[in-house]
Each structure stands twice: as C-alpha cells, then as structure tokens.
Amino acid sequence: MPASSSASHSPTLETIRMIEEFAREHSGEYRRRAMWSSLPRKTMYQTFKTAIDYLIESNKIAIDAGGKVCWIFDPDLTRRYLGREDLRIR
C-alpha cells in the first residue's frame, strides 16, 4: 500500500529547526515563498508548508497582514505566565 501524501511531506525535526531558526533571524522580512527560496538548505515546498503550519499552530510564528512570516514566540514571557498561580487550570 502506498504511503499517504501527507506522510511523504512530513518534515524532519532538523528541517523544522532550520525553518524555525531562519524565521527567528529574519522575522518580518520574507513572505512564505520567498522565505522557502532563501532557506540555507533546500526542501520540497509541500514539506516547507507542513513545517510552517506546525510553527503557526504552536504559536511560534504568525503571518502578518502583508503576508510576511513573523516570529512571535517569547519563552521568557511564557515562563513568567506559567509561574503565576492565579493562571493555573484548576
């Protein structure tokens, strides 16, 4: 039985980290297609889109009104909020 099309475009952890680092370093500079073309290592566009979708769902990046990829993850702020007792789920 052939593998599903989504499985054939699943990014590796190394690919996700490369895209994540590039997005952090170049926040707000590139739209998706231009970012894909500028990555230090080439990947299939479908694989890139899957990684971008993951980074959006995990609240690490967002796409602004101009279509540019922006880094939004702030681990220090997250740690500060996680440490607050009044924000805990009971």
Key attributes of the depicted protein:
mainly alpha, Arc Repressor Mutant, subunit A, two-stranded antiparallel ribbon, 5 helices, 2 strands, 50% helix, elongated, disordered N terminus
Give a written overview of the molecule.
α2 packs across α4 (45-57). Mean pLDDT is 89; it is low at 1-5. β1 (61-63) and β2 form a beta hairpin. The chain has one domain (12-87): Arc Repressor Mutant, subunit A (Orthogonal Bundle), CATH 1.10.10. It contains 5 helices and 2 strands, in the order ααααββα. The chain has helices at 5-8, 13-25, 32-38, 45-57, 75-82, and strands at 61-63, 69-71. With 90 residues, it is mainly alpha-helical. The chain has a two-stranded antiparallel sheet with strand order 1-2.
Helix content range: 40-55%
Tally of individual helices: 5
State the separation between the terminal residues, measured CA to CA.
46 Å
CATH architecture: Orthogonal Bundle
Major sheet strand order: 1-2
Poorly predicted segments: 1-5
SS content category: mainly alpha
Give the C-level CATH assignment: Mainly Alpha
Largest sheet: 2 strands, antiparallel
Mean pLDDT: 89
* Cα gyration radius (Å): 16 Å
Order of helices and strands: HHHHEEH
Total beta strand runs: 2
Domain count: the total is 1
CATH structural fold name? Arc Repressor Mutant, subunit A
The best one-word shape is: elongated
What is the strand content? Answer: 5-15%
Summarize the entry for a quick read.
The protein is mostly helical and 90 residues long. The protein has one domain (12-87): Arc Repressor Mutant, subunit A (Orthogonal Bundle), CATH 1.10.10.
